[in-house]
User: Fold these one by one.
Assistant:
Number 1:
Amino acid sequence: MGIAFAHYKLHNHDEAAESAQQAYEVLEEMHSPRSGIALRNIGVFYQEAKKYFESAEIFRKAINIPLFEDEELTMAKDYYNLGFALTKLEQFNEAIAALTRGKELASKVTAPIVEALCNEQLAFCFVSIGEYDAGLEAVRFSIDYALLTGDDSRMFQAVRVRGKIHAARSDYESALSDFKAAKSVNLENTCITDWDAIYEIEEEIAMALEQLGQNDEAQEVRRRIKAVSNSN
């Protein structure tokens, strides 16, 4: 697995998955209990490579291969990772089922970070199928967790998802407030600044401004996006 993680650190995610697959096959032939760990690493590497179908298939398999140490926590993470991949594949109903199971297991073993992650994805799934109240209820836990722990990464994602829910409900004032707050969290924490996400949020801000009749401000936001993105 050492070679796989070396590729992963270099952001060579396809190569990381390939190396992890080779390690998994060797460990599986040896009937090693570490084969389950290797399998789960393959699924994560596929996610990083944006191969979500392959990742989902891996975690469907992993759920049926228990790890005897921290078994329920491992399963909670498996269901989260399966749900995440299914969300990316826009298979929202199946994703909701997986994420709900992951959230339940995480709550049972007191793993609030995993529960928060599941709720973030649940909120996105719910807004995608028009269940806005369920989305707001799910994301509330993630925001509470982020506020309690000072986890800026979770705050960034959760507040942004809440903004999407407000926008979908045509509450553009609240959406604009959340998008601006998410952008500020991203920019203020240099460890998590994601420029692609910044451009996406700025576009979401521009759309909210347009809906509020502030067309000049929306045009200025889009001018700024174009000017800065072209210089990168």
Number 2:
Amino acid sequence: MARHGQSERQKWKESFWLFRRQPAGANPVQSLDFEIMKKNTAMTRWSIYRASLEFGVTRETITRALAQSGADIQKGATYPTRQIFLALAGDIKGERLRVVKATADRVERQNQVETGKLIPYTEAQDQARAAGGIILTHLQRLEMELPAHLTGLSAVEIAQYLDTEFRRVRSEMREAFNNVGTSPKK
């Protein structure tokens, strides 16, 4: 009991002298708490084995988490509680920042879609399919029509026919491509 009283008396003396040493205008309560906390809380360090017992996870889990967080893993090394906790639980501030950035990116993409600067992937895919369908249709038509029209013609007549036909196909494709992407949204 006497030791307990001495210990309490010693704590009171320390806090009294810490209180007395405060600079003018300082908040003595905040400074006092900080000084006592600094004195009384030595940084607890853990070996991987002891941390695995305390945190209830395997040594491999702690080792992997520390390595992923950038800690230098060495045999017999000890790590502060905060470092082990952040390695196991993840950096909350970093995670919040990642979520805020992802949300901002999503909102920015939605704004660009609404203003017409971007189109959704599925709509772009549909438009690419429509464009590919137009090209394929014209190529298949030319493949079926050309042999019948070109038989028996001279080289000059074939060149003229092909020139006329390609101009017509280009014009039809240009018209068809102008209509791609202008269909009303679903």
Number 3:
Amino acid sequence: MTAVGKLVSVERRPLLLISLALGIVVLALVPLHTAFRAQNAVLAHDDYLRPACRTPLHVFPEPLCPDVVAGESPATVAFALVVVPLVLGRSGRGGLLAIAVISAALAALQILAPLAFSFPAVNGERPSPFEAEAGCGLVNCGLDHTVFHLVQLPFLVAMALMGRRLYRRSGALPTDREP
């Protein structure tokens, strides 16, 4: 059992495990995509590097990015592997509510991102989010981009629902009080 696992109560552990699974999946998906699916020409193109490595923040240098992390994946990994375990181990009801709300917001973003927040392919066209396109990669457009977001969705929905349930159990909401 990890040090964080010892700090987290038994009722909160399923939420911790889902969060850790999300972080590991997102951390593994980018290198797996790079190794087995990505095209080297796309990964090296400036039109791919901009959304993959410089948007929203330029966190990792480009020899490391886009092979290891891409797009918002560092933020998702930090939320799932650092923020949620720390909040679960050290906070009360407010932390559970924050996890639930942030997870729900991130889940909504995973649905909207392939449709509203895609970038053009390296050839300049913007293909459908449901078709594989030669000029697209994991974070800019096309089917790979859509799948990357939708893979995260069940984890985030589960975290939102479990966080809300734990929040409700930890104290009565105003609507739950008896007259």
